[in-house]
């Protein structure tokens, strides 16, 4: 099954794009509000002045090299400081590598080793290795931690890309590779995504997600199009809605967790200015979408963000009828579902999601692979399994690597997890494969219960039998205190 927008945009390979921060400055939003936090409004002029000052500090920092493209880590909490420091790295000619604060010591050490950073900027509240820093920016308290051994095996090829970001995937199914994104591809992404989001200088976007995991096709997109990003440091529904009301926010960008809390708010604020609510980062449960729609009389729109691609799918046209869909392709993208032989599958059948369009990543960092080495005639295999309905909407069914083969029949862990999560006692769960002497493999489940809840495993098995085919029912269910998560908060698999 092939879905497409107009057709893929013309190649911009021959174009030379300037630094993305300079592009934002050239659009001259001047005194318009760029950021709003704790009631304080920061204009574009003020933001860019802060960024320029921090960029000059960074260029003077010991070990920061201007001859090539220095890779700079950023360890900083959400907020205005993160935005200023991230933009300063790009403004100074560096390549930004987010260092999320959720990482374990071992995960952080691996990230530093694989990216070969010249140094890390530590936000004012970050204590990690702060005693080893050699330079502190007096106005903000940000510190510079220089690092050694910062040469890649493919240093020349890397620098030739004009890289802006290195982002590692969530690592739910194994070791992530490090996605390299250039300034040119970044601009392509935000322009392609905004064909659906329609962000303008009149928008005020209420921001809820961790910036270390979501920044390029969000914060930078909002700044590029002159919008104001409203920052909230609370996830409590009443406080979030108070911020929405005081800022007159028009867009909210969050995860299903945030929308479930907002939908349950008992207050009377109906959010009349809200024009777009986008759910991302995790599959959107239908009951959350329905509850949000009832509470605010607005549809909750699910989008599919792919770290290698950007935002190729957004359910702006079908959120009321099919809230669990990730939508149709945005105008600049083509989408196909293919079987294991690489042939297109018909609507209603499951296949791997392949995507073609602008803004695709430039390379994997380790092991080094360029986009041309990975794509097939310009098409990127996402590893997601999906199906389409008669209207051409795409539904994600699982990951190709996580499918469980039960005597030749496919079981998608996410389908079983959806059923388990509908039980009122279940807070979280993970379904995986276990070897079976007769059937090859069978699904098994780990389940975490809500605090204060008790339920026997056999009751959960009976719950599954009511909703699933026999071969999809877990062979066993084990109750657990917690499940291992990735740095971005997703359940780690296998």
What does this structure look like?
The protein is α/β, with parallel strands linked by helices and 494 residues long. Helix content is 26%, strand content 27%. Helix 2 (44-59) crosses helix 3 and helix 8 (237-247) crosses helix 9 (256-263). The radius of gyration is 23 Å and the shape is globular.
**Share of residues in helices:** 25-40%
Q: Percent of residues in beta strands?
A: 25-35%
The coarse overall form would be: globular
Rg over CA atoms, rounded to whole Å, is: 23 Å
Q: Helix/strand/pairing class, anyone?
A: alpha/beta
Order of strands in the sheet with most strands: 3-2-12-11-13-14-15-16-17
Give the full name of the CATH homologous superfamily of one domain: ANL, N-terminal domain
Summarize the model shown:
The chain is α/β, with parallel strands linked by helices. Helix 8 (237-247) crosses helix 9.
SSE blueprint:
Layout (H helix, E strand, L loop, with lengths): L1 E3 L15 H7 L6 E5 L2 E4 H16 L11 E5 L4 H12 L3 E4 L6 H11 L3 E4 L12 E2 L6 E4 L8 H6 L2 E5 L11 E4 H15 L6 E4 L8 H9 L3 E4 L5 H11 L3 E4 L1 H8 L12 E4 L6 H11 L3 E7 L3 E5 L13 E2 L4 E5 L12 E6 L6 E2 L4 E2 H4 L5 E9 L5 E6 L4 E3 L2 E3 L1 H9 L4 E11 L3 E10 L7 H11 L8 E4 L15
Parallel strand pairs: 2-12, 4-5, 4-6, 11-12, 11-13, 13-14, 14-15, 27-28
Antiparallel strand pairs: 1-18, 2-3, 6-8, 7-8, 9-10, 10-20, 15-16, 16-17, 18-19, 19-22, 20-21, 22-23, 24-25, 26-27
Helix pairs in contact: 2-3, 6-7, 8-9, 9-10
